[in-house]
């Protein structure tokens, strides 16, 4: 028998996992929604974010290094993505989705080799500051402090991205360009740089997700593989290009995984994929409206 305390604790563990997934998937969903690019390299950028955070914490010791890593690692990823977008992606937006898929897959392999050259093949790890030691009690459940921090960051990212896309001039231009890029260009707006900004913003969120997950997992080559599979499943069941759909999909995936570990640990990996199958059988186009 499982007591209510264990259920509550596992619920919040799944919720914190869902928040990391959402941060990454919101970036992927944003790129899908604006650029119509199925960016498989998104997982590699997430991995670069984690490795960059590791390097920054080694350069700057103590709690300051951790907080600096959370700030700077996403910008490292943003810079890498800007170079890739200006050198490569900007010439391919009009191509078929299959070609873009193959191109981003090739890019992910290149980025994976670059990570191996720069950081090596050894496992890396980051320790969270002492302020995150211990746990907090919430609704009778015990939650690790770092997981509680993630529960705050996820909604903040969601609100920030919603505010950008709906309340700022650049966000409205990006949404308009997603619907009719020719019309946006006809009024004198440089659509190429709008797309560059949208791509970099999406990749910035991938880097932020990598920096956030770094203290909770081993930082290693290949950490991008499972993540990108999960991310595409999440944006699919949520609704392609729909930010709030990414949130719903992340919650489904994270919570089903957490309760799978609690109730049937030998087959815990199966539960999230069972949830995906059930959702797609019920709503083949995703939980919320797709922009495609």
Secondary-structure content class: mainly alpha
Physical arrangement of strands within the biggest beta sheet: 1-2
DSSP E strands, number = 2
What sequence of helices (H) and strands (E) makes up the elements? HHHHEEHHHHHHH
Instruction: Give the DSSP E fraction (strand runs of 2 or more residues).
Output: under 5%
Tally of domains = 1
How many angstroms does the end-to-end distance come to? 45 Å
Sheet with the most strands? 2 strands, antiparallel
Overall mean pLDDT: 87
Radius of gyration: 19 Å
What report would you give on this structure?
- This protein has about 290 residues and is mainly α.
- It contains eleven helices and two strands.
- Helix 6 packs across helix 8.
- The model has no long low-confidence stretch (mean pLDDT about 85).
- It has a two-stranded antiparallel sheet.
- The protein has one domain.
- Strand 1 and strand 2 form a beta hairpin.
């Amino acid at each position: 028998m499982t007591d209510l305390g264990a259920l509550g604790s596992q619920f919040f563990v799944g919720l914190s996992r869902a928040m990391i997934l959402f941060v990454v998937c919101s970036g992927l969903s944003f790129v899908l929604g604006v650029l119509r690019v199925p960016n498989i390299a998104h997982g590699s950028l997430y991995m670069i974010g984690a490795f960059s955070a590791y390097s920054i914490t080694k350069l700057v010791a103590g709690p300051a290094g951790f907080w600096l890593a959370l700030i700077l690692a996403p910008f490292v990823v943003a810079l890498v993505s800007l170079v890739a977008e200006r050198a490569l992606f900007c010439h391919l937006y009009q191509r078929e989705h299959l070609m873009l898929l193959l191109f981003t897959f090739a890019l992910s392999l290149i980025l994976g080799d670059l990570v191996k050259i720069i950081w090596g093949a050894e496992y890396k790890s980051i320790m969270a500051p002492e302020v995150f030691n211990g746990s907090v009690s919430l609704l009778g459940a015990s939650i690790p402090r770092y997981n509680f921090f993630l529960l705050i960051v996820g909604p903040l990212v969601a609100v920030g991205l919603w505010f950008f896309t709906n309340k700022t001039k650049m966000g409205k231009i990006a949404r308009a360009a997603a619907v009719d890029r020719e019309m946006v260009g006809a009024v004198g707006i440089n659509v190429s740089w709008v797309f560059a900004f949208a791509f970099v913003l999406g990749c910035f969120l991938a880097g932020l997700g990598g920096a956030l997950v770094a203290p909770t997992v081993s930082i290693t080559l290949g950490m991008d593989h499972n993540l990108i599979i999960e991310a595409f499943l999440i944006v699919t069941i949520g609704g392609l290009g729909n930010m709030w759909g990414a949130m719903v999909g992340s919650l489904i995936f994270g919570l089903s995984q957490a309760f799978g570990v609690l109730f049937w640990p030998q087959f815990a990996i199966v539960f999230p994929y069972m949830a995906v199958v059930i959702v797609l059988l019920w709503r083949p186009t995703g939980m919320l409206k797709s922009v495609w």
